[in-house]
Design brief:
There is one protein chain. This protein is of the alpha/beta class. It folds into two domains: 191 residues, 2-enoyl-CoA Hydratase, Chain A, domain 1 (Alpha-Beta Complex); 48 residues. It contains ten helices and nine strands. The strands form two sheets. Strands 1-2-3-4-6-9 form a six-stranded mixed beta sheet, with helices on both faces. The chain has a three-stranded mixed beta sheet with strand order 5-7-8. Helix 1 runs parallel beside helix 2 and helix 3 packs parallel to helix 4.
């Protein structure tokens, strides 16, 4: 794996760190390939939860606009398809994924943060989708925003194309919690510990179902939810959860 992404495991928690600090973790082909490989490894190792963060002064300032041939339509199409594949892969990671955002999260970097299930940001974090100021249409970003905010908020974010702080991001619904920089790591550790307590089977199934429900009608959502409950009740984790509750002890989940 490229040194532009660092992957570590500790107590069933995987940490994926973007490691191109001299470029504020701008995403080029090498980093994209390394990030995709890291996500695949996290899935293969069966981590209970995962974190994605950036080393240095930023989470990620977006795509590396200095790389590649921007005037080649074939290369441009290949790059966009590469980004779509990458973001889809991040979203489809089986275990819960937390984006830990500090510094800048701009353009593709902000999209990468949104691709996670939960977003924790430090109070000095800055978000933004500046594509319109570069003559670009943020189509991939819109797909992610459509899952999280209403059309008026999406219009404000996309059409102004301005940066906004973590507090505003939380108001928009793009961030779950904002903490002081000094408390960031302890807050992140608390989140991963809490996520690791749940049944791995139930967490994976719940995450998958949440994604699926975005494309279902209200009536279909109820049916899909009922099916998931019935299937889940037949698993070993469901049986262990009942026994642990009855015996007043912590459950011992299957991997």
């Amino acid at each position: 794996m490229s040194k532009q992404v660092v992957l570590t495991f500790s107590n069933d928690v995987a940490t994926i760190e973007l490691n191109r600090p001299e470029k504020l973790n701008a995403v080029g082909q090498e980093l994209a390939d390394a990030l995709e490989a890291a996500v695949e490894e996290v899935a293969a190792q069966g981590a209970r939860c995962a974190v994605i963060s950036g080393r240095g002064r930023a989470f990620c300032v977006g795509a590396d606009l200095g790389g590649g041939n921007k005037d080649d339509p074939v290369a441009a199409e290949a790059w966009i398809n590469r980004i779509v594949t990458l973001l889809n892969g991040v979203q489809q990671l089986p275990c819960p994924l937390v984006s830990y955002v500090h510094g800048y999260a701009l353009g593709l970097g902000a999209s990468l943060a949104m691709a996670a299930d939960l977003v924790l940001a430090t109070d000095e974090a800055q978000f933004g989708f500046p594509e319109v100021h570069h003559g670009l249409v943020p189509g991939v970003t819109m797909a992610l925003l459509a899952e999280r905010v209403n059309i008026l908020t999406a219009g404000e974010i996309i059409l102004f194309g301005e940066r906004f702080d973590a507090s505003k991001a939380a108001q928009y619904g793009l961030v779950n919690e904002v903490v002081p920089v000094s408390d960031g790591q302890s807050a992140l550790d608390d989140w991963t510990q809490r996520l690791s307590r749940g049944s791995p089977m139930a967490m994976r199934a719940s995450k998958r179902l949440l994604r699926e429900m975005l494309s279902l009608t209200p009536k279909s959502r109820m049916a899909a939810g009922a099916d998931a409950v019935l299937v889940g009740r037949q698993t070993e984790d469901a049986k262990e959860g009942f026994v642990a509750f009855r015996d007043k002890r912590k459950p011992r989940w299957a991997p």
